[in-house]
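Troubleshooting log. The previous structure file for this entry was overwritten by mistake, so regenerating from the original sequence record. Sequence copied from the archived sheet and checked twice against the printout by T.R.
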Amino acid sequence: MKEVDHTEVMDRAQRVMAHATDVMARLDARGGAAQQAAQRDRQRLNAGLGRTAARIGIAVIAVWIAAFVIGMVRPIGMTGFLIALLTTAVVAAIFLFRGGRGAVSAPAPAPDLPNGAMVDRFDSYIVRVRRVLPAPAQAQLDSISAVLPSLKQSLERVETLDPQAQDARRLMSIHLPGLIDRYANVPPAYRGERDGEGKTVDERLVESLAAARAALSEVSEQLARTDLAAFETQGRFIKSRYGEQGIESEDASST
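Regenerated output below.
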């Protein structure tokens, strides 16, 4: 009877456990930050489609009101009716083209957007470009996506020219989109070549995305700590002003 090699069995069990852990981590990633980012993107897309439909409705009503007013002054006849129909179709096509163009692709955020709108546009942007990047880079984008909701909440309360906001804005609108564009320009056959520091294009991309995630996390944390400090100051003031029968003592001193 063949003797069982316990070392080999243990090694095989460890490999199986490692593989299962890796699979579960990937499933968690799909159901975590990546899924939440995709859900936010769908919500923004639906909101954009709703706004486009509302604009089309308003424009169509305006065209037919104009046709009705003109008809009250002078009958428009069949020719005028056809012109109104053609105008309606043209207006609807223009609004659909403008609204649909933004729905199909998410360009990088424009540098002049307000803080909250920039975070939303950047969120949509990384959701769309995620699928063309290698798996390690996708994981970094998922980590960036997880930071964006709290970052948006903090950035919406500060001025555009705030130094911390400026750092985050440049990163989202210029530096990261530029990095991803340059990565896409490198032919796949050359992405395995190592540069002067011994890193491949993919490794350099992952390293840069990790640095960007750390920078955005730092900005978000600093802004949140500023809010925490303001809250603490306000709480201390209220306690010192009104605590320990402060109101009663005020009433007594006024009499």
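The first helix runs from residue 6 to 31. Archived copy saved in two places this time.
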